[in-house]
């Protein structure tokens, strides 16, 4: 099918988003680079939003978008869901405060509901983010094993702290042998000690992982993995089962980071789909319905290291216990188990127990439609993902890991995303799509119509 090349999708970006440009110039006088989180930035400047409801966002130039970023997957029930709002207001009115600073009933109520869907969480603790959850999980694992080196996988992100900000997006030409990846820093200001103490593993390569873990069996106490890399590149089932087996053999704590996949693959996360039980699980993002929360849960014998009953911690100056602070695993936080957020979290569970299956069906309809359009226009591409998260990958090769993804046409994918901006579809360039319960059949149809027009625009003329 012949396609006529239209104007370049970047042509009128600045014209259509002039208020965002003006705002970002002002913001740069307040915050470095105009943002308070680097993830919010993209060139030439991000679109600034002023209103969101359901599956829609409206920017500062009053342009409406169907939102598929959904705050990087956090808003599984969409923007401003009335049930979530109602739960938050009712908690404040019922309890008289939105922060006790003491134990309270919602901590137990939410915990029991999480355990229903994640039975591997025999005990759990709340944190304020997924990053804090993974950080705590590593400390608990070290306390349990007495070993302080950790292993992670190339291309996997577990939070913006030095231990894990290693080989998340390494330049492939510097990353070493695919079967023995180099540990490379992903930030300025990091000590080189973290590159020695964080061992990098190749995702979906069982043989190489087993060899590396055996080589460091006396040093590594924990192995952390996104069972679905970046929320959309699935692990081979045999790979995860093999990883579970070798970590058990070597006495290493296996941690599933399900911050992205919890509630989005299914209510029980990727571990339910793969039928693999990790020692510890971390959750975040979607479980809070747009509020900041994280959870660490797992085997009782491991989680009990975080119990304060064994001795005095850093805040206990009574000197009535025989143990000292160094004998107790420290974990605290003023906002841990925030009642307002737990109320929101339970509302999210209520909604997903009713509506997650229909959301998964809508996601499959969107993916199928996109794949058919890619085939119709003879574009080398596919949708990759499980559950309500996926990405559009411009390659026909099987994507099994970070290095495979780097071989795809990322430049054209970015161009495609800018073309979709013009047509009312919001997605941070080259990011994954997250579908919510708020997306309607009409939203899916309009998205597919925009996607077809974007393919015509980007792949017209000589490129086609």
From TrEMBL:
Gene Ontology molecular function: any one: pyridoxal phosphate binding
Keywords linked to the UniProt accession: Pyridoxal phosphate
Keyword Zinc-finger: no
Cofactor(s) it depends on: pyridoxal 5'-phosphate
CDD domains, A to Z: OAT_like
Region described as Disordered: 170-191
Gene3D superfamilies, per the entry: Aspartate Aminotransferase, domain 1 (3.90.1150.10), Type I PLP-dependent aspartate aminotransferase-like (Major domain) (3.40.640.10)
InterPro entries xrefs: Aminotrans_3 (IPR005814), PyrdxlP-dep_Trfase (IPR015424), PyrdxlP-dep_Trfase_major (IPR015421), PyrdxlP-dep_Trfase_small (IPR015422)
Keyword Signal belongs to the record: no
Similarity comment: family membership: Belongs to the class-III pyridoxal-phosphate-dependent aminotransferase family.
Protein name: Glutamate-1-semialdehyde 2,1-aminomutase
Organism: Alteribacillus iranensis
């Amino acid at each position: 099918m012949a396609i006529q090349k239209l104007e370049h999708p970047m042509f009128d970006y600045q014209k259509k988003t002039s208020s965002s440009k003006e705002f970002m110039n002002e913001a740069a006088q307040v915050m470095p680079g105009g943002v308070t989180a680097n993830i919010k930035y993209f060139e030439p400047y991000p679109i600034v939003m002023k209103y969101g409801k359901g599956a829609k966002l409206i920017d500062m130039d009053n342009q409406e978008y169907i939102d598929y970023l959904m705050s990087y997957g956090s808003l599984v029930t969409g923007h401003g869901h009335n049930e979530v709002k109602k739960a938050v207001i009712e908690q404040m009115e019922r309890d008289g405060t939105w922060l006790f600073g003491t134990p309270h009933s919602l901590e137990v109520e939410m915990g029991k509901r999480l355990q229903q869907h994640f039975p591997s969480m025999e005990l759990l603790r709340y944190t304020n983010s997924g990053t804090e959850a993974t950080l705590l999980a590593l400390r608990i694992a070290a306390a349990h094993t007495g070993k302080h080196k950790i292993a992670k996988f190339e291309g996997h992100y577990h939070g913006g702290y030095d231990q894990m900000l290693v080989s998340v997006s390494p330049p492939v030409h510097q990353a070493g042998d695919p079967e023995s990846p180099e540990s490379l820093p992903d930030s300025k200001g990091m000590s080189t000690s973290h590159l020695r103490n964080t061992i990098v593993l190749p995702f979906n390569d069982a043989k190489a992982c087993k060899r590396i873990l055996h080589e460091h069996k006396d040093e590594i106490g924990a192995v952390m993995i996104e069972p679905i890399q970046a929320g959309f590149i699935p692990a081979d089932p045999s790979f995860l089962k093999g990883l579970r087996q070798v970590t058990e053999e070597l006495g290493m704590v296996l941690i599933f980071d399900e911050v992205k996949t919890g509630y989005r693959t299914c209510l029980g996360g990727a571990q339910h789909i793969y039928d693999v039980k990790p020692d510890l699980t971390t959750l975040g993002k979607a479980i809070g319905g747009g509020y900041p929360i994280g959870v660490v849960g797992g085997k009782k014998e491991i989680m009990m290291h975080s119990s304060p009953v064994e001795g005095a911690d850093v805040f206990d100056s009574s000197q009535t216990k025989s143990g000292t602070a160094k004998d107790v695993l420290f974990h605290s936080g003023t906002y841990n188990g925030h009642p307002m957020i737990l109320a929101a979290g339970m509302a999210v569970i209520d909604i997903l127990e009713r509506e997650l299956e229909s959301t998964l069906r809508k996601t499959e309809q969107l993916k199928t439609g996109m794949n058919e359009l890619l085939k119709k226009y003879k574009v080398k591409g596919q949708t990759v993902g499980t559950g309500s998260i996926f990405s559009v990958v411009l390659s026909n090769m099987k994507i099994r890991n970070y290095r495979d993804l780097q071989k795809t046409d990322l430049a054209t994918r970015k161009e495609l995303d800018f073309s979709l901006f013009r047509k009312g579809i919001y997605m941070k360039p080259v990011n994954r799509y997250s579908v919510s319960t708020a997306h309607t059949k009409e939203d899916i149809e309009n998205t597919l119509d925009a996607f077809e027009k974007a393919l015509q625009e980007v792949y017209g003329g000589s490129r086609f």
